[in-house]
Backbone:
């Protein structure tokens, strides 16, 4: 089934900004987010600690964030070893796709004295053909990084499970925004089904920074008057925060002096990243040829 639009949202701005709990983890699911499909959580595992992956009816994407790696053990067949990275700024991701109905245990294999932090995105199946039925390991060497934008709108995008990946609903990537730069610019949205211009996609942003005092600014807004300007989401996001993009345009800016990272998890009815830009601001693309890309990028290389 192809839905014409996202579900109506009545979440307050405070509900869209999920801050880490006492254990440093964040989580959101369709009930929490007010949408149909996407769940996301972060989790830290010490050596030998484990969690059972709830995958009976949902496909899963696991991405290593910091502190080392994890082992993914299955009831049948060999384990997958995700070597991981010390932090997102120290290397490209190790990731895995776990098909729905594949029982799996995620076991911490962190660096000495650390906890292995991972992000887990999940979504139910649509019944789409061509979906992988075996677990897939995505290595750093499999990532073809992209430099998008120009000038102070330049950012690095690492597609992990792009539209061509044999998942069902899940689309996963990570974005590096150099200090002082904007990403998601011109602001775009993916709220309605209007192919090929736009598709309905639910999305979360999971943030990381190198320094504990660092922050950036996330905005989520609309042009239709449904959310008054006084209630637009405009918040400082910090290390470990999660933002639920319920609807509307959603640009981000990194504070000067602090490079920023966010992990994008998306899910929808169509396997595409089609979106439409804010018509008031789309013209700013015309400035890019004279600016050229930011020479600081890529921030993280293979």
Residues:
């Amino acid at each position: 089934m192809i839905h014409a639009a996202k579900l109506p949202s009545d979440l307050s701005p405070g509900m869209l900004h999920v801050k880490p709990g006492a254990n440093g983890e964040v989580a959101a699911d369709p009930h929490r987010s007010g949408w149909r499909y996407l769940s996301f959580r972060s989790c830290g595992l010490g050596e030998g600690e484990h969690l059972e992956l709830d995958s009976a009816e949902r496909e899963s994407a696991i991405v290593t964030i910091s502190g080392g790696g994890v082992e993914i053990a299955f009831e049948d067949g060999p384990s997958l070893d995700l070597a991981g990275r010390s932090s997102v700024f120290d290397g490209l991701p190790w990731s895995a796709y776990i098909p729905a109905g594949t029982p799996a245990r995620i076991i911490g294999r962190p660096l000495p004295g650390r906890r292995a932090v991972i992000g887990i995105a999940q979504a139910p199946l649509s019944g789409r053909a061509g979906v992988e039925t075996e677990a897939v390991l995505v290595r750093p060497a499999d990532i073809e990084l992209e430099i998008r934008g120009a000038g102070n709108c330049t950012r690095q995008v690492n597609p992990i499970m792009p539209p061509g990946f044999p998942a069902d609903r899940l689309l996963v990537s990570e974005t590096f925004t150099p200090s002082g730069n904007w990403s998601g610019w011109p602001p775009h949205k993916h709220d309605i089904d209007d192919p090929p211009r736009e598709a309905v996609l639910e999305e979360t942003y999971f943030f990381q920074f190198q320094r504990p005092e660092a922050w950036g600014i996330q905005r989520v807004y609309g042009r239709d008057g449904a959310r008054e300007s006084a209630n637009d989401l405009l918040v400082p996001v910090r290390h470990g925060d999660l933002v639920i993009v319920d609807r509307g345009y959603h640009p981000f800016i990194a504070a000067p002096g602090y490079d920023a990272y966010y992990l994008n998890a998306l899910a929808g009815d169509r396997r595409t990243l089609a979106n439409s830009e804010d018509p008031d601001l789309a013209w700013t693309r015309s400035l890019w040829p004279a600016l050229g890309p930011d020479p600081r990028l890529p921030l993280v290389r293979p």
